Amino acid sequence: MIIVMKAHAEPQEIEAVVQRVEEMGYKVHLSRGEARTIVGVIGADEHLIQNGTFEVMEGVERTLRVMQPYKLASRDFSEVDTVINVNGVPIGSTKIAVMAGPCSVESREMIIETARIVKEAGATVLRGGAFKPRTSPYSFQGLGEQGLQFLAEARELTGLPVITEVMSAEDVPLVGEYTDIFQVGARNTQNYSLLKALGKQNKPVFLKRGISGTIQELLMSAEYILSGGNMNVMVCERGIRTYETATRNTFDINAVPLLKELTHLPVVADPAHGTGMWQLVAPIAKAAVAAGADAIMVEVHPDPSHAWSDGAQSLTPERFKRLMGDLRLVAQAVGREI
Ligand code: PEP
Ligand code: MN
C-alpha cells in the first residue's frame, strides 16, 4: 500500500503515519518528492490493511493499493523517474548514459586503450567483464580480481566510472572494492541470494533481464534489491530467447517503453547481447533511444576479430564513434541529449 501525504503535510504528521505503519508490523519506505511525501507500506500481507486505517490520519491525502506484485519498483510508488548518480554521472535523467567497453577485460593495456577510445567518443561509463558467465567451462572465464584492478586503473586514468559483472553473493565484497556499478547478468537475474546481498549494500545495481525471463520476473528481481534497502537499481533489456535462431537473441523493443510505464527505475538497452551481430547493434541502439531508453550498453573492442569473447557483436572504435554521432541526433529528436 502507498500512503500519499498532502502537499505540505507537517513533518509530525508524516512521523505519526510512519509510526502507525511500524506499530502494525510493516516496513516503511519513505519517498520525499518535491511536492509531497509518499509512505510505502511494505509487508507480505499489507493487502489485509482495512480501508480507512490511514485515511483518517492528519496530513494523509489518500491511499493506493499497488496491484502489481512488485511494489517499490512500481510506477505507482514514484511518478518521477529515479535518477541514479554514479560518481557524478546521472543515469535516468534527460541525459542518456552510454556504457561502453569490451565484453571481457583482456589485459591492462587493452582496457586502458578501450577506455580512452570510448571516453573520447562520448561514453560516460566504462564496461568490462572480469568474472565471465560463459556457456562452456572451457571458454575464457575472465581475469578475475586482476581484471578488476585493471578496470580500476582505467577509471583512474580516464575518470570514467566502471561497471562489471558480479556472479555470486560471495563475490560482492571483492567486486564492490573496485566497481562503481554491479552488473547482474542474464544468467543470474533470479539468483536470489545474489540479489539479497546486493540489496544490503548501496552501490548501484544494473540488473539484466533473464534469458527467458518475463518483464514481471525482471521487476520482481529488482524488488528483491529494493526491498533490501538499496534503491539504486536500473533494469536492462538484453534480448530474450525465442524460436528465432537467425540472431543470438530477440531484442524485445516493447520492453523499453513498457518498462518506462511500469517502473520509475532507469531503463537500459543492451543491443549487443540483444542481437549478437555488430551490424544490428547501431540500428537497435537507435531504436531503443527513440523508444525511451535512459541508457545504452554496447560492447566496443579495439580489434573485434581478436576478442576473447563476444567479438561478433562488438563495435570497432570507428563504428562506435559513428554510432555516438547518430545517437545524438536520435536523442535530440526525442527531447533528450547524450
Ligand atoms: C555481458 O554483458 O557481457 C554479458 C555476459 O551479458 P548477459 O548477461 O546479458 O549475457
Ligand atoms: Mn558480452
What would the keywords be for this entry?
single chain; 338 residues; alpha/beta; Alpha-Beta Plaits; TIM Barrel; 8-stranded parallel β-barrel; 4-stranded antiparallel beta sheet; 10 helices; binds phosphoenolpyruvate; binds manganese (II) ion
Structural summary, described in words:
With 338 residues, this protein is an alpha/beta fold. It folds into two domains: 2-64, 2-Layer Sandwich (Alpha-Beta Plaits); 84-333, Aldolase class I (TIM Barrel, Alpha-Beta Barrel). The protein is 33% helix and 18% strand. The protein has ten helices and 14 strands. The protein has helices at 11-23, 108-121, 145-158, 172-178, 192-199, 215-227, 255-262, 271-275, 278-290, 317-333; strands at residues 2-5, 27-32, 37-42, 60-64, 84-86, 89-91, 97-101, 125-127, 162-165, 181-184, 205-208, 233-237, 267-269, 295-299. An eight-stranded parallel β-barrel has the order 7-8-9-10-11-12-13-14, surrounded by six helices. A four-stranded antiparallel beta sheet has the order 2-3-1-4, with helices on one face. The protein has a two-stranded antiparallel sheet with strand order 5-6. It is elongated, with a radius of gyration of 21 Å. The relative contact order is 0.12. The model has no long low-confidence stretch (mean pLDDT 96). The structure holds phosphoenolpyruvate and manganese (II) ion (MN). Phosphoenolpyruvate binds at residues 103, 129, 133, 185-187, 208, 238, 273. The site of phosphoenolpyruvate has 9 residues, from loops.
